[in-house]
What we know:
The chain is mostly helical. It has helices at 9-16, 23-39, 48-56, 61-79, 82-93, 99-117, 142-150, 157-172, 176-181, 218-229, 253-261, 276-289, 294-301, 306-313, 318-321; strands spanning 189-191, 194-199, 208-211, 238-240, 247-250, 265-267, 270-272. The protein is built from 15 helices and seven strands.
Amino acid sequence: MSTDLTTTTTDARYLLIPDNPNRDMKSRIGMFAEWLQTSGSPLYAPDLKAYSEHLSTSKAPASVAAHLSTIRAAYRRLLRDNDLRDELYSVAASRLETPADRKAFVDEQLKRMENALDPAAAPVKVVKHQDRADSEQIRLTREQAEQLLNAPGVVPIKALRDTAAIALMLCTGLREAELCALEVDDLRQSLGGKTALRVRKGKGCKERLIPYGELSWVLAIVDRWLLAAGVTSGPVMRSFWKNGKTLRGVLKVRMVEYIVGSYPIMIGDKVRTVRPHDLRRTYAARLYDAEMDILSISQNLGHKDTKTTLLYIGEQNAQKRAAAGVYSYDLKLLEAVT
C-alpha cells in the first residue's frame, strides 16, 4: 500500500475479497476494484454515490443495490481487520512525527471509511413489487412439469443424468448448489419414520431433511442413474467429458442451469426455457395446491420465514381480485370513430 493511499486493482481485490468468496463476490469486488483505479476514488473513502451512478448506466436498480451491499460488506470486514490499522499506522509513520498525530491520522481515515459506507450516502431507489406477472416467475403446472421431466429421456446416460437432476429438483425443491452437494448417503435418511432426503449444507449452513412422501418414486430414477454411472458413494450428480459417456467429476452449479435450460417446453402458446429456481417455485406451488400447510413447505425449502415461501407459491387470490362488472359502456359507440 503506497503512502499516498492510492491502490492498484490487484491491491484492492486482495484487501476486499474474503477467503472462499462466491462467484458474485469475486465479480462485484473485481468490478469495483477496477473502478477505484480508473476513477481515482480513494480506497479508504470510496465515493459509493459515484460508483452507484456508474453502475446505474448499465444495471437495474436492484442489481446496483446488490453490488453496493457486497462492497459495503467487504469494507466492514476490512474495518474489523487489525492489519488495516497496522497498515495505516505504517503510512502515518512515514509522514507524521508524534504518536498523537499518527493516531489522529489513523482515526480520521477509519472514520472517513465508515462515513463512506453509510447507505444514506449512496441511496438506491428500488421498486418494490406487490405483485409479479406470471411471465416473470414461472411456476409449472402439473402437465408442464411432467413435460419437462420427460423431455431428456433416459438414453444415452447423460440424458438419464439430466432426468434424475430435474426429478430431484421438482420432487424436493432443492437449490442448484444443494443438488450439486448431494451425496449418495443423503438420498435415504429418515424423519419421523418417513424416508427423507438430507441437505447437508443449505443456505446459511443449515442442514435439513425433506420427506419424499408420495414423490418417493424419484428414488427409482436416481437409483437407475447411479447404477448406469457406476456411482456407489460420494456426489450423486456428476459431469461428463465431451464424449458424453465418461464421468469427469462433480457437477458444477452453473451446469445445473445449463441442463434445465436445455429442454424448452410449451408454456401457454410459447416455447420457453425454465431455470432451476423455477422448479423450486413449482415445488412450492404444487404442494400448496395439494393442501400441504405453508409451514411444512417452508421447512422443506429451508426458508427462515413463511413470507418468503408465499412469494415462491405466488398469487393465490387472483380470481378473487378480478374486478366485477360494476360499470358498463356501449362499445357500439366506437364504430363512429373514423
